[in-house]
Amino acid sequence: MGEQVRYGLVGTGMMGVEHINNLAITPGAVVTAIADPMHGSLGWAKTALGGAADGVQAFDDAASLVASGLCDAVIVASPNYTHRDVLVPLFDAGLHILCEKPIATTIDDARWIAARAAQTPGVFWTAMEYRFMPPAAEFIDEIHAGRIGKLQMLSIREHRFPFLPKVGDWNRFSRNTGGTMVEKCCHFFDLMRLITGAEPVRVYCSGAMDVNHLDEAYDGERPDIIDNSYTTVDFDNGVRAMLDLSMFADGAENQEEIAAVGDKARLEVLIPEGAIIYSPRVGFRNPKRAERRVVDVDPAALAAGSHHGSTFYEHQRFNAAVRGAGPVEVTAHDGLMAVAIGAAAELSAREKRVVTMAELGV
After folding, report:
1. Which residues contact 94 (CB under 8 A, 6 or more apart)?
2. I want to staple 99 with a disulfide (CB 3.0 to 4.6 A). Which of 33, 34, 76, 138 is the partner?
């Protein structure tokens, strides 16, 4: 692989356009082909490409894009339920792949993808952008460096806006997304595994659809996606983790708040504020000694997407892996495990019980 990597893109909706914007500021990246069955979505991509659009070929499907021979690497940003079918020709061609989260909507499909990824000569990278938000990345590094001592508790809060409109609003139904705990929360379950350095044992989720989409209907069918939940995950090293999700908290000052508590200190990160707060143990009634700093993010990275610059930083790392200049940091197995924890949470919420990962075969 030379210094220039030719990119194809399958799925040119909102996330596909974010990838295009970030590839435009990634050295050595050039978009050569796009594919989407919806011509309106292809139009969004061409607008994002600007003057470069004339040199980009458009196709209706992934197989045609692959057959063109125009690409070294392909980004899969199509709807969740299409990923397995989209990936087949990409795997067959041995192309490098960055697949958006979740890699699949079911554990079985995610397991199949992980098995194929293990056999492909190309790089397979699961797009878990939240790992690469600069404040979150520094937060994780400090925990792993032992700044809080031995990690015992991890809590993640996402208070945000409802699911955005999609083509046909496909994201309103769990059969298309895997459910909210898979579609949205796989990011956070991935962070839990990364931060704890451990594997999940059991999951309990209490959640429901209480506020959003209640007045919507599609061919007489009502949406069925969770819009708020509490989820606890027990890990095999004794660490407990918790996710607090609300998708009707649009006015929250910070969308993500993550806190890790060890036997020596507490560490928090607030996004988009970008603050990291270190609070050592001081004993009862002693003066607090919290330290607060703000982590800067490249303004160009912030302007290129809606994930606090993370897509830009992720692309630098993926591009390096494709060129053999860096490791694969988020594997297909990581994608499988994030789907599995999300699927366990969905089952737990439906059946109102603790779900063990063993019963799901993971």
Report:
1. 120, 121, 122
2. 76
> How many CA atoms lie within 13 Å of 346's alpha carbon, on the beta-carbon side?
26
On the question of pLDDT at 167 being above 90, the answer is no
Q: Is the peptide bond before 272 cis (omega within 30 degrees of 0)?
A: yes
Distance CA 129, CA 124 (A): 15
Q: What tokens appear for 9 in the block? A: 């893109």
- Give the dihedral sign, CA 173/177/182/184: negative
3-state helix, strand, coil in the chain (%, to 5): 40, 25, 35
H/E run at residue 281: none
- Of 240, 275, 239, residue with least CA distance to 257: 275
pLDDT higher than 80, residue 344? yes
Distance of CA 229 to the CA centre of its chain: 18
Report residue 345 as tokens. Answer: 């949470």
What's CA 313's distance to the chain center, in Å? 13
* CA neighbours closer than 13 Å in the CB half-sphere of residue 260: 26
317: which residues sit within 8 A by CB, 6+ positions away? Answer: 132, 326, 329
Quote the tokens at residue 316. 């630098």
Cβ neighbours of 2 (radius 10 Å): 8
Residue type, 158: E
C-beta pairs of 22-26 under 8 Å, 24+ apart in sequence = 22/301, 22/304, 22/305, 22/311, 22/312, 22/315, 23/315, 24/52, 24/304, 25/300, 25/301, 25/304, 25/312, 26/312, 26/315, 26/316, 26/319
pTM of the model: 0.96
Peptide bond preceding 299 in cis form (omega within 30 of 0) = no
Instruction: Give per-residue pLDDT as tens, 116-155.
Output: 999 999 999 999 999 999 999 999 999 999 999 999 999 9
Name the nearest CA neighbour of 250 among 329, 163, 308, 330: 163
